[in-house]
Write a structure and sequence with these properties.
It is built from 9 helices and 12 strands. It is an alpha/beta fold. The chain has a domain of 199 residues: Rossmann fold, CATH 3.40.50.720. α3 links the parallel β3 and β4.
């Protein structure tokens, strides 16, 4: 397949390009090569490349800044996605849009299913939900893949932040009343590669299996990295942020099961592999 990856310099994008290149013809484009907010550029680039599928991982992801940069968040996450959807439809390409657990309000007590009613509370979540709606209304061959708590070797993320903080602290407080599922970019990229080669369109929830709080996630990071540090639980209210966070963002993987894909492995197993491979490089980055 010929696959176009948007946001190719991002956290997920870089692992996508690395993994897809092994078996597919991949065109990974960053903002310099493809500004998704430009309708003309989207039409021109996609018309020239004529990909079979587009994996759209470019996004505005600054959750707190989005509260004061609402127009920019929508420009990228909603209208940029619209531009890609229209351009993809013109050449008959499949479109895979990467979305988020933030489209839900986080007030639930059971895992959110793919077709449960979204109710985002943050500007970031609302802008990503708007992107979903534009994909659904403009694309005839689409996948919407919601994921959560993403981490990998590239870019900033919770795992790398924890390792950095542990270098000059002996105690950390981490929120224990927000629950979800971490997702390793490599595992997500492997799933996306399988998905876009099928005609099994629709909405998917894709995160590593299992559930934890941020506090439990942090403890696991230090245990797997063999770093001794005192991690204490605290409440969301102890760390006020501009954007509301979902308290419960566990997602059910019904579409993965029903469409007979193999589910992503347990989050702890994925974390162990990630740290075994990358801990030293991350710690050297922080020096």
């Amino acid at each position: 397949m010929r696959i176009l990856v948007t946001g190719a310099n991002g956290q997920l994008g870089q692992d996508l390009v690395k993994i897809l290149t092994r078996e597919q013809e991949v065109h990974g484009l960053g903002r310099d090569q493809l500004d998704i907010t430009s309708e003309d550029q989207c039409n021109r680039v996609i018309s020239d490349l004529r990909p079979d599928a587009i994996i759209h991982s470019a996004a505005y992801t600054a959750v707190d800044m989005a509260e004061t940069e609402e127009d920019l968040a929508y420009k990228i996450n909603a209208f940029g996605t619209r531009n890609l959807a229209i351009a993809a439809e013109k050449i008959g390409a499949k479109l895979c849009y990467i979305s988020t657990d933030y489209v839900f309000d986080g007030t639930g007590s059971r895992p959110y299913r793919e077709y449960d009613h979204p109710n985002p509370h943050s500007v970031y979540g609302k802008s990503k939900r708007a992107g979903e709606q534009l994909v659904q209304s403009l694309s005839s061959r689409y996948y919407i893949v919601r994921t959560s708590w993403v981490y990998g070797l590239y870019g900033a993320n919770f795992v790398k932040t924890m390792l950095k903080l542990a270098q000059d602290r002996d105690t950390l407080k981490v929120v224990s009343d927000q629950v979800g599922s971490p997702t390793y970019t490599v595992d997500l990229a492997r799933f996306l590669e399988q998905l876009v080669q099928t005609e099994r369109y629709g909405i998917y929830h894709a995160s590593n299996s299992g559930v934890c709080s941020w506090y439990e996630f942090a403890k696991a990071i230090f245990e797997e990295a063999d770093i001794g540090i005192n991690v204490k639980p605290c409440k969301t209210e102890d760390f006020p942020r501009p954007a509301p966070r979902p308290k419960y963002s566990v997602m059910d993987h019904m579409s993965i099961r029903v469409n007979q894909f193999e589910d992503l492995r347990d989050w702890r197993e994925a974390l162990k592999e990630f740290l075994d491979k990358n801990k030293e490089e991350i710690l050297n980055e922080n020096c």
